[in-house]
Amino acid sequence: MSSSSRSPLLLAGLLAAAGVAHFVSPKKFDDIVPRALPGSPRAWTQASGAVELALAAGLAVPRTRRVAARATALFFVGVFPANVKMAYDWRERPARERAVAFGRLPLQVPLVLWARKAARAQGK
Q1: What Å distances lie between residue 82 and 52, 63, 64, 67, 102, CA to CA?
Q2: Taking the model in full, what pTM does it have?
Q3: Staple partner for 5: which of 71, 89, 91, 124, CB 3.0–4.6 Å?
Q4: Which secondary-structure segment (H or E) carries 45?
């Protein structure tokens, strides 16, 4: 298996792990749901976890990889406001926790680029 065909599978693994985490430890995700969103934070946590699991499945199958990868890139952009909220909410926390929260912000860029690269790996 070439590195270009492993990359989408690694991204699928990351998304699958994150999706499962949304159901196993939902409280930490509930806390970063922007309050401007309608409904309960738990509903958004569960919905985003389900989307991550669906995207992971789509990335794992070469036939659906291109569409799933493009959707993944959009998903990473869409969850950025939650990362901003987390950084804002954690601005008074100890330095290590602040570093994690603020470190998530620029991490979205390579995640989007990784998803875009995975879109080009369709069928490989």
Answers
A1: 15, 31, 27, 24, 12
A2: 0.87
A3: 124
A4: helix 41-60
Q: Which helix (H) or strand (E) holds 84?
A: helix 80-89
**Structure tokens belonging to residue 70:** 């493009």
Let me know if 106 is exposed, middle or buried by CB neighbors in 10 A (0-12, 13-18, 19+): exposed
Which residue ranges make up each domain of the chain? 3-117
Amino acid letter, residue 93: R
Q: How confident is the model at residue 121 (pLDDT cuts 50, 70, 90)?
A: confident
| Cα three-residue angle 30-91-41, rounded to 5 degrees | 10
| 15-73 residue pLDDT tens | 999 999 999 999 999 999 998 999 999 999 999 999 999 999 999 999 999 999 999 99
